Predict the structure.
Amino acid sequence: MRRHIVENNVTEFAVFQNWCDENNERWAEALDSGCAIAIEKFIADWNGRADANRWKHAAQSDDNIWDNELK
């Protein structure tokens, strides 16, 4: 599940759960039987980490438009 979430850039648990209902019965059953909380937390944590990496990259001095204007 986690690999699918990362590779397909899943950002919302409900979207993933609906996808599982339509496309992967085994995963849908797993979500219904108790692993939903862990997967929901993984999606939230993964997306927070992805956002942090985007901001970290944007803040690098080589990419910062304000730093480039001062050179």
